[in-house]
Specification:
about 325 residues; alpha+beta; 7-stranded mixed sheet; two-stranded antiparallel ribbon; 12 helices; disordered N terminus
């Protein structure tokens, strides 16, 4: 939907359907009553509400239901069981809030677009929307369960120390010329570009047994534990971008290898910073890697009869936080004649 297009469908109708599904009727409780029923201080309840990403309403404003009481009780129970500590409960709730905020925003836009397109035919299919919302919730539950199983299987293969600070490959992939390109595209075309970009990146990263950590505008942050699949994925990304017959945009990639702190669905540490800096200075269609990753790839190539990679040291670069950052250009090995 372009910026100058107006929704024919009245969005308030969707609000009503979503509201009825969430509350099973009108809200009946104030924030103060929610806190009392849950057995927590009002300020603690307000903090949790803020952590989820919502503005705090007046203490006496009726805007909540029994579902809010149960949510606080469940969170408190998680703390009692030691799943989250009092010091990290805010981080836990913020992480959940951020993730579902982005997901809900995207899904509501899709629903509004579908309803707007249906206007003028048989009218907006509100009965369908009323059925769709609980179905989406079921999909959420299924996907979460599958990811929970995958994460448990993955983490069970390592010790807690390795999960926290074990070496991994961190990568950033960035669309070249995104700012100028976005000015030339309609909102719909830009959405298609970003969707295709994220879809291809996700497939390649997952096929390499890695994880997409998050998208940051026109950039994707990912991790792949094994350096070689990470290198292969990076090379595949720039190859896709260089193919004029492929809708995938031109990209640049930065990779770094080393210990990483994994926390609440995000990653932190110098390795993440280095990968980001390498991406920012990489040329279009190029993969830059740090010295640690270069050493690992060269060592593995030395054990093969035929090398897989070409690694050329570039001049040291000065970027924010790193005055003399070592960078290597990564390319596939030339086939032997």
């Amino acid at each position: 939907m372009d910026d100058d297009e107006q929704l024919a469908f009245d969005p308030s109708l969707l609000i009503g359907v979503a509201h009825d599904f969430l509350f099973d009727g009108q809200p009946t409780l104030t924030q103060r009553q929610v806190a009392e029923k849950a057995g927590v201080d009002l300020e603690d309840a307000n903090d949790l509400w803020r952590y989820l990403g919502f503005s705090v309403v007046g203490d006496d404003q009726v805007a909540f239901s029994e579902a809010d009481v149960e949510a606080i009780k469940v969170t408190e129970r998680l703390a009692e069981l030691g799943v989250v500590s009092p010091d990290t409960i805010g981080q836990f709730v913020r992480s959940v809030g951020r993730s579902f905020s982005r997901l809900a925003d995207w899904q509501v836009r899709v629903l509004l677009s579908a309803l707007s397109d249906a206007e003028g035919e048989d009218g907006p299919p509100l009965d369908v929307v009323a059925e769709v919302i609980p179905l989406v919730e079921q999909v959420h539950s299924y996907v979460w369960r599958r990811h929970l199983l995958a994460a448990a299987s993955r983490i069970a293969m390592r010790t807690a120390q390795e999960e926290t600070s074990g070496p991994t490959t961190v990568g950033f992939v960035d669309i070249v010329g995104y700012t100028s390109r976005s000015r030339q595209l309609s909102t719909r075309d830009l959405a298609e570009l970003v969707e295709h970009f994220e879809s291809v990146v996700t497939r390649l990263v997952v096929d390499a047994r890695g994880e997409v950590v998050k998208t940051i505008g026109d950039e994707v942050l990912f991790t792949i534990e094994d350096p070689e699949p990470a290198a292969e994925a990076a090379l595949a990304l720039v190859e896709r971008g260089d193919d004029e017959d492929d809708l995938f945009p031109h990209v640049r990639v930065g990779l770094a290898y080393g210990p990483v702190l994994a926390r609440l669905g995000d990653v932190y540490g110098p390795v993440v910073n280095i990968a980001s800096r390498l991406t920012s200075v990489s040329r279009p269609g190029r993969v830059l890697v740090d010295g640690e990753l270069s050493a690992v790839l060269r060592d593995r190539d030395a054990e093969r009869e035929e090398p897989r990679y070409r690694l050329r040291r570039t001049r040291r670069i000065s970027v924010k936080g790193y005055e003399h950052l070592e960078a290597w250009a990564l390319k596939p090995a030339r086939p032997r004649e």
